[in-house]
Backbone:
């Protein structure tokens, strides 16, 4: 069951992307409050509060103006300090004058000092003065509550009436029911023209027993070890009980004296919870840690999740997965995770859930604290990578023997002739001219298991952090009656790594297999082996190459290709004959090539995220907010609010948007059954030797497991009969396309049709084409895309370029107006020529290709940066590709771990820096002098330019735009306009 723990933990990490995170307002630590020490005094002079007793508890900075007006702000009026004198040592106070409205006064921002649910006592010493004062005037204490997407509220605290030359105490209390984006305390009230006098202000938390913000060691959880019983804890749909032991002493606390358990759970979501509203700061990363186990109901192992329930000021609800563990009934297991909140919700509750009803959750300690900053990973030191050198021994079988090879399992290996004499195309593209192969191959016979085949140990030859390309020829022996997968696999200790695979439908031809891999942790053992066909089917292997890839050498070629493909000649013509010899400087400010990112509704609550997005991307795609399961999770209840708000962000910032997606053809129920059938043996056998179908799942794990969690087809949709389902499909198209007509430039019509077939299975084979036709009729301005994954990397036999091409041609033959090809691009250890080969094949269709969901993943951010550069350079240098969308950039808001460009708290890492360097490289600049034809010529990327003209001791700046094209572009620069 140990592998199940890792399996479910991986599932949970991906689950996080489906739950949009909401914001919590910044809060700061406060000490335990004490009572105010302001004495009531009828005279104009009053006694100063006891500093030693009030300073720690008062949340007002500079409360008695001993530091002038520091921390205070006069709102639409003036304020000055009257300092004490020898005769009147306690008469330091502020005079607020030039007041034209009753609400004008002195204020202080206390956002980071207050929390919902706590009662705050207010005590201020105030007076009034001025020529306009007649008798008495009212002084009022107020709290202003500002919300990001709702009206500002004003909370009355207290009022007192003050006579001339008198000081009065203004006393009251307030409590926040939610946490606004900004909380401002201020004093106001007197009529216009009357001066407001303020001597001191104290605002203190009434709760004297519990800190309002942080507990010991920064843990925001109150009573985390249950030393105070179950105070601060409640049951979420169940009961909770305190224990010092259970099961006749067999279950003892992991640490401390007590632990808690849930009982009478009737739903998976029932568990133990704590309200943490106001105790966490927005835009800070938090780490979660707890020890959990389960008990009862004959369940020995189950997933336990830590979840946040978040309610926003506009009454939205979110459920955010933050940590996960596979718990057992035999011992305590540590649950760990990490999360960040973008904004300021009104309420936040953390709770445990997951096991089936009737099974108790046991909790021993829960910690939620600000996550420690992880230092950036250093660039790996790679000595003598031996680029292009095959690390396989006796690959060519030149001596006619299988020396260096051994059979994995009880199969038999022999050498035979008749294999190709040249390297497979992908290897030739990388290596260039190479020695001919011998024509000999290894035949594998007597196979009784799918994993049996030729193997070789390469432990001492593989170097960490080096990307290796895999290339080989393979062929089936006779006897196969159905398509067979052949896979180059690596056993890295107890883990399986996919080196590439191919599906073979005949026994007469040699087929190329290509792929790549990289190892980033020091292994004790690395074995490469070839496996996959069904038991009893022989296969042949020839010319297996595994070699380190020289990426920098490839980059030189790509730079030349980029200049040829992406730039164009531009001629600037000046409309003045006296411009000859004038110096000009041309600077590109924005490249028009589409580079976009995934964005989710919760992201736009973080102004730092928005700033990076707006500055660096000109396209956007919504993570979940346009998908059918999001916009109509319950039949007839449409939710376009999130998509509307994201689209407004795009419109406001001149960002084009892709519509992702109208439908999703992967039915998670069938896929989950398939997954469990083929992975159960894999989990039980410690991954090696693997089942090829399970290997295929694990190789594409992020994308395969997504549908389990996304619920890509809603339950209510699955339960419809054929007639009602067809109606629902038409309603979905009409509702979405009519609402946003002309606003989304692209639509992914039916996502991942190579990996699922829910709609054609239910509605017939013409359903997909009809979706395209109807979408085109409803919004002719939108380009309609197919969209799928693992097209470009050779790791998934269901989604090869050839199968993608066949699917597109079939759709077109049925009249579907397919206008673009989407490649998702969730890729590991990319090899440029392998990617380029797939693009060449797809490019033959003549349709624009977009990378729609690109991400790369590596623990080491320098390697991640290298992978990202490989993909961006290959894409940008290929003439068939017209846009790149990355699948997010902010840590904790990515579908894959270790793929972010910006850390959770806004720091750009090495991968992000590399991305910005590439964008800078793809901006053109030129300078020189206007020739005798009054022209200035340069070669540059399409986009927006500024031209600076230096003439007559003046500098003139004019803007122009270079459009796409491959001909010399003449552009007239008006000088006298």
Residues:
């Amino acid at each position: 069951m140990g592998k199940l723990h890792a399996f479910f933990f991986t599932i949970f990490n991906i689950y996080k992307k489906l739950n949009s995170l909401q914001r919590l307002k910044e809060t700061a630590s406060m000490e335990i409050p004490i009572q105010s020490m302001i004495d009531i005094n009828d005279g104009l002079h009053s006694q100063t509060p006891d500093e030693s007793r009030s300073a720690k508890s008062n949340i007002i900075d500079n409360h008695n103006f001993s530091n002038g007006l520091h921390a205070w702000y006069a709102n639409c009026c003036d304020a000055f300090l009257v300092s004490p004198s020898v005769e009147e040592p306690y008469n330091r106070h502020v005079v607020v004058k030039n007041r034209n409205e009753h609400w004008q006064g002195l204020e202080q921002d206390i956002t980071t000092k207050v929390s919902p649910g706590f009662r705050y006592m207010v005590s201020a010493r105030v007076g009034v003065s001025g020529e306009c004062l007649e008798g008495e005037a009212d002084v009022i204490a107020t709290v202003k509550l500002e919300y990001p997407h709702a009206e500002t509220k004003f909370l009355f605290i207290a009022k007192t009436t003050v006579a001339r030359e008198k000081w009065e105490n203004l006393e009251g209390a307030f409590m926040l029911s939610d946490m606004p984006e900004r909380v401002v305390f201020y004093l106001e009230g007197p009529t216009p023209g009357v001066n407001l006098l303020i001597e001191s202000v104290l605002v203190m938390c009434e709760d004297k027993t519990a800190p309002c913000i942080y507990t010991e060691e920064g843990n925001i959880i109150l009573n985390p070890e249950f030393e105070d019983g179950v105070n601060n804890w409640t049951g979420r749909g169940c009961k909770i009980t305190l224990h010092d032991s259970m099961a006749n002493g067999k279950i003892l606390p992991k640490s401390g004296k007590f632990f808690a358990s849930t009982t009478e759970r009737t739903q998976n979501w029932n568990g133990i919870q704590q309200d943490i509203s106001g105790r966490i700061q927005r835009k800070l990363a938090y780490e979660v840690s707890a020890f959990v186990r389960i008990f009862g109901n004959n369940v020995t192992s189950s997933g336990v999740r830590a979840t946040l329930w978040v309610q926003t000021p506009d009454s939205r609800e979110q459920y955010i997965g933050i940590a996960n563990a596979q718990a057992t009934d035999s011992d305590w297991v540590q649950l760990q995770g990490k999360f960040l909140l973008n904004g300021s919700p009104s309420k936040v509750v953390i709770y445990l859930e997951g096991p089936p009803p009737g099974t108790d959750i046991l909790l021993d300690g829960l910690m939620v604290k600000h996550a420690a900053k992880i230092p950036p990973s250093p660039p790996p030191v790679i000595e003598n990578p031996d680029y292009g050198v095959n690390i396989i021994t006796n690959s060519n079988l030149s001596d006619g023997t299988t020396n260096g090879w051994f059979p994995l399992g009880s199969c038999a290996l022999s050498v035979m002739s008749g294999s190709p004499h040249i390297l497979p195309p992908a290897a030739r593209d990388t290596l260039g001219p190479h020695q001919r192969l011998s024509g000999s191959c290894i035949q594998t016979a007597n196979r009784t298991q799918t994993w049996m085949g030729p193997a070789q140990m390469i432990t001492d030859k593989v170097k960490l952090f080096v990307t290796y390309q895999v290339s080989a020829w393979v062929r089936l022996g006779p006897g196969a009656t159905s398509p067979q997968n052949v896979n180059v696999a690596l056993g890295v200790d107890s883990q399986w790594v996919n080196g590439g695979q191919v599906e073979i439908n005949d026994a007469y031809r040699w087929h190329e297999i290509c792929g790549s891999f990289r190892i980033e942790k020091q292994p004790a053992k690395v074995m490469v082996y070839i496996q996959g066909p069904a038991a009893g089917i022989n296969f042949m292997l020839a010319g297996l190459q595994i070699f380190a890839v020289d990426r920098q050498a490839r980059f030189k070629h790509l730079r030349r290709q980029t200049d040829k493909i992406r730039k164009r000649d531009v001629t600037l013509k000046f409309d003045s004959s006296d411009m000859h010899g004038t110096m000009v400087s041309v600077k590109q400010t924005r490249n028009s090539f589409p580079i976009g990112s995934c964005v989710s509704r919760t992201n736009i609550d973080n102004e730092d995220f928005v700033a990076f997005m707006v500055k660096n991307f000109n396209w956007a795609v919504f993570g979940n907010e346009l998908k059918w399961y999001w916009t109509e999770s319950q039949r007839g209840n449409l939710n376009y609010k999130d998509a509307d708000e994201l689209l407004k962000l795009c419109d406001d910032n001149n960002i084009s948007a892709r519509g992702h997606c109208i439908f999703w053809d992967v039915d998670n129920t069938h896929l989950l059954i398939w997954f469990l059938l083929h992975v159960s043996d894999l989990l039980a056998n410690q991954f090696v030797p693997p089942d090829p179908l399970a290997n295929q799942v694990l190789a594409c794990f992020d994308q395969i497991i997504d549908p389990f969690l996304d619920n890509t087809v809603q339950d209510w949709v699955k339960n419809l009969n054929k007639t009602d389902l067809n109606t629902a499909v038409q309603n979905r198209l009409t509702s979405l396309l009519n609402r946003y007509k002309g606003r989304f430039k692209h639509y992914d019509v039916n996502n991942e049709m190579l990996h699922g077939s829910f709609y054609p299975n239910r509605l017939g084979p013409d359903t997909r084409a009809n979706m395209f036709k109807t979408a085109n009729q409803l919004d002719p301005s939108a380009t309609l895309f197919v969209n799928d994954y693992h097209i470009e990397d050779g790791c998934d036999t269901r989604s090869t370029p050839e199968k993608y091409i066949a699917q597109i041609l079939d759709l077109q033959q049925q009249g579907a107006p397919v206008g673009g090809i989407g490649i998702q691009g969730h890729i590991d250890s990319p090899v440029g020529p392998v990617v380029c080969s797939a693009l060449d094949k797809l490019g033959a269709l003549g349709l624009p290709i977009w990378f729609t969901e690109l991400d790369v993943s590596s623990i080491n951010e320098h390697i991640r940066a290298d992978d990202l550069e490989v993909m961006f350079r290959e894409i940008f240098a290929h003439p068939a590709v017209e846009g790149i969308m990355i699948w997010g950039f902010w840590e904790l808001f990515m579908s894959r771990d270790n793929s972010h460009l910006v850390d959770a708290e806004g720091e750009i890492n090495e991968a992000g820096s590399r991305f910005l360097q590439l964008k800078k490289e793809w901006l053109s600049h030129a300078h020189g002098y206007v020739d005798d034809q009054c022209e200035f010529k340069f070669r540059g990327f399409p986009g927006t330019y500024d031209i600076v003209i230096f003439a007559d001791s003046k500098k003139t700046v004019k803007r122009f735009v270079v459009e796409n094209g491959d001909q010399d572009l003449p552009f007239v620069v008006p000088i006298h306009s």
